[in-house]
Design goal:
The chain is of the alpha/beta class. The protein has two domains: 5-101, Elongation Factor Tu (Ef-tu), domain 3 (Beta Barrel); 111-222, Nucleotide-binding domain of ferredoxin-NADP reductase (FNR) module (Rossmann fold, 3-Layer(aba) Sandwich), CATH 3.40.50.80. 16% of the residues lie in helices and 40% in strands. The chain contains four helices and twelve strands; from the N terminus they run ββββββαββαββαβαβ. The protein has helices at 81-88, 121-129, 173-179, 196-208, and strands spanning 5-18, 21-27, 41-47, 53-59, 61-64, 69-75, 94-101, 111-117, 136-143, 156-162, 188-195, 216-222. Strands 4-3-7-1-2-6-5 form a seven-stranded antiparallel β-sheet. The longest helix is centred in the C-terminal third of the chain and has 13 residues, at 196-208.
Length: 230
């Protein structure tokens, strides 16, 4: 894997995947040799409403070394620096990123579970596409409504749950879905991504159902009511 470094990139594409998810395509000569594993991210150097420099992390999607580009997917609800940048950026704008970053590792377990909200979608999609052909599993993703569904490649049974107006990070939809899910007692691994308090709750539930530390990866992507640290 390449050593993390700073990349000067330019925006070459903007597309709305859903009403609340925008894809920004970036390019730069250094991406010809950029390497990352599915689920890793880069740190974006942005500014907040006061003009102060902040850093936010986003999953690398659809890396194309030959084309010297990759995609970054942004959830547009809320008013954080990342969402604000994605909502206003134009083709031709420049961006400084640092990476790759992240310690999430793929699993070769026969059965895999992915739990998360829409912030987890980029990571889940990248990891699902790279799952071994011998693996299978379930992805349960919480989104605002049916319009926010996206194709998830790979050998997963994808199940969507809808908040229908409730703010992200405030429901027990994932808890209820996990409660009703049969988790096989075989070679298995569970990934939990999303709002930090929800992630901790789901992680504890999975532990109570017998999953050991080596069978579980949990990572909070954001905090309800609090700005993420740089």
């Amino acid at each position: 894997m390449s050593i993390a470094e700073t990349h000067e990139l330019a925006v070459v594409g903007i597309a709305d995947l859903t009403p609340l998810m925008r894809r920004i395509t970036v390019t730069g000569d250094s991406l010809a040799t950029f390497e990352c594993v599915p689920g890793q991210d880069v740190v974006l150097h942005l500014t907040d409403d006061s003009g102060n420099g902040v850093r936010r992390r986003y999953t690398v999607r659809n890396l194309d070394n030959a084309g010297r580009r990759f995609d970054l997917d942004f959830v547009l609800h809320g008013h954080g620096p990342g969402a604000n940048w994605a909502a206003t950026v134009a083709v031709g704008s420049t961006l400084q990123v640092f990476g790759p970053r992240g310690k999430v590792a793929m699993s070769d377990a026969r059965w895999q579970l992915f739990l998360g909200d829409e912030s987890a979608l980029p990571g889940v999609a990248e990891m699902a596409a790279a799952m071994p052909a011998s693996s299978e599993g379930v992805a349960i993703i919480e989104v605002q409504d049916a319009n926010e569904r996206q194709p998830i490649p790979g050998p997963l049974d994808v199940r969507w749950v809808f908040r229908d107006g409730a703010p992200a990070g405030t429901t027990s939809l994932l808890d209820e879905s996990l409660r009703d899910l049969s988790v096989p007692d075989i070679d298995r691994h569970a990934f939990v991504f999303g709002e930090s308090r929800v992630v901790r709750r789901l992680r504890d539930t999975l532990r109570s159902r017998g999953l050991g530390a080596a069978e579980l990866t949990a990572k909070g992507y954001w905090n309800l009511g609090r700005a993420m640290r740089d």
